[in-house]
Amino acid sequence: MAGKFEVYEDKAGKYRFRLKAGNGEVVATGEAYETKGAAIKGTEAVQRAADGATVVEV
User: From which domain of life does this come (predicted)?
Assistant: First the structure.
């Protein structure tokens, strides 16, 4: 099963997203956004940034 982004409202009334792996484990979380639309745009930005990203040791 593929991973998925979940967009949700936190206790403070802000919107956040989390990326869950296919097994349900949370592998990434986003910052707080004022609107649900902004949180969705945040997921899209992560998708674009991760496409073809490499792993670099620092």
Answer: Bacteria
Tell me whether residue 55 is in a domain.
no
Per DSSP, the residues of 14-53 read: -EEEEEE-TTS-EEEE---BSSHHHHHHHHHHHHHHHTT-
Dump pLDDT digits (tens) for 33-47: 999 999 999 999 999
Q: Which one-letter amino acid corresponds to residue 1? A: M
Residue 58 lies in a domain: no
Please state, in angstroms and rounded to a whole number, the distance separating the CA atoms of residues 7 and 12: 14
The range of the structural domain enclosing residue 29 comes to 4-50
Q: Give the pTM.
A: 0.86
| Strand-by-strand arrangement of the 26-29 sheet | 4-9, 15-20, 26-29
